[in-house]
Amino acid sequence: MNTGPPPTRLVFLNELPNVAPGSKVRFLGCVTEYVTSSGTLKLQHAHNATDSKASSAIVALVDIELLLETIKATDMHVGAWVNVIGYVDAGARVSRRVAGTGKDQGIDVKIQAVMLWSAGSIRIGDYEQALQGRRGLD
Questions:
Q1: Phi-psi region of 56 (alpha: psi -120 to 50; beta: other; left: phi over 0)
Q2: Model-level pTM?
């Protein structure tokens, strides 16, 4: 019987809504906003998006309060690509609706980060291919 921590599942950010709450995940995302009042980074990654509407449909709301003493300021800048390891929160999926219309605008997925680091000058296309290739081996 394994009593250690759960294994980390490597996923694309747009797959987060399909991951069970409490699961430990690792993903890559681009910072679109830092909400200082809540210590939350908003991340996106438009993997396999066929249009601009789909590219903004999934947002990871990453709670970084546990990391505030160690996180680098440059990792919170808009446009920074970061790797995240964390847990999908129990109340993870929240639909965003357009005010007054009720139209679905996308899904926010809440993540409690335990690690976050810069992806540096990453080639997104190469990363996506590598992750897809790795899945073929699993």
A1: alpha
A2: 0.81
With contact defined as beta carbons under 8 Å apart, do 30 and 47 qualify?
Answer: no
Q: Phi first, then psi: give them for residue 15, nearest 5 degrees.
A: -95, -10
Per DSSP, the three-state class of 25 is: strand
**Element holding 119 (H helix, E strand):** none
d(CA 85, CA 4): 16
- Among residues 37, 136, 19, 134, the alpha carbon closest in space to that of 84 is found at 19
d(CA 9, CA 7): 6
pLDDT in tens, 122-138: 888 888 888 888 776 55
User: Quick check: helix, strand or coil at residue 24?
Assistant: strand
Assess contact for 10 and 131: CB atoms under 8 A. yes
For residue 56, give every residue at least 6 positions away whose Cβ sits within 8 Å of its Cβ, in sequence order, or none: 44, 46, 106
For the chain, how many helices (H) and strands (E)? 2, 6
